[in-house]
């Protein structure tokens, strides 16, 4: 019952299950709760059918030694959207979020389709409905801090929107924003040498994230840790220029 409260109603509608029973669909369980007794983590895996390759919603939470809740993973995918094999290398082996090899042709396809790094399918725009439920869940346990480790640049920027601040990595984020400005080192590296380093990509979160995924930094994307105090918004914005760019784009669309 407690874990069920984390699931947004629209997710259950996509799965085709009822909010009370979380019953079976197409002969198999659509929602699986994994919470081993005595261990400080839990996992929710939801699929429309057990045979599906990808979950619609995957959540993993874990306790920390500091009485905090770690949002370890949250993956939300549209099961009806086209799939891109960015999660495997060229030989079809799991690449563990591209850390063990990349599938460049699939990454190019995914990028051109509007996806972010490591996305195999577009999302359902459900995170905004899920996150308040997570905060209420964490608060009900007497915990007031949620931590996370964004796997990509766009994840970090997205979490800022929901009120997260940085435990580590703020200096890196500030440097990234400075160096993507005209005249900066990263700006100069968007030279068209790869499909992920095209001029103009510095203007969007998605463009920057793909360039960083492609290794445009002098260092690997690592060591960025964030936190949120339940019920509070930190007001952090490490890419303020994006708002000006989005506003300009909206004006162009209206012309």
Mind explaining what this structure looks like?
The protein has eight helices and nine strands. With 255 residues, the chain is α+β, with helices and mostly antiparallel strands. It has two domains: 1-79 and 136-148, no CATH class; 150-255, no CATH class. It has a seven-stranded mixed β-sheet with strand order 3-4-5-6-7-9-8, covered by helices on one side. The longest helix is centred in the middle third of the chain and has 14 residues, at 127-140. The radius of gyration is 19 Å and the shape is globular.
Layout of helices and strands:
Blueprint: H1 9-15, E1 24-25, E2 28-29, E3 31-34, E4 41-46, E5 57-63, E6 69-76, H2 104-112, H3 127-140, E7 145-148, H4 153-161, E8 165-168, H5 170-179, H6 185-189, H7 205-213, E9 225-229, H8 241-254
Parallel strand pairs: 6-7
Antiparallel strand pairs: 1-2, 3-4, 4-5, 5-6, 7-9, 8-9
Distinctive features:
255 residues; alpha+beta; seven-stranded mixed sheet; two-stranded antiparallel sheet; globular; disordered C terminus
Please outline what is shown here.
The chain has 255 residues and is α+β, with helices and mostly antiparallel strands.
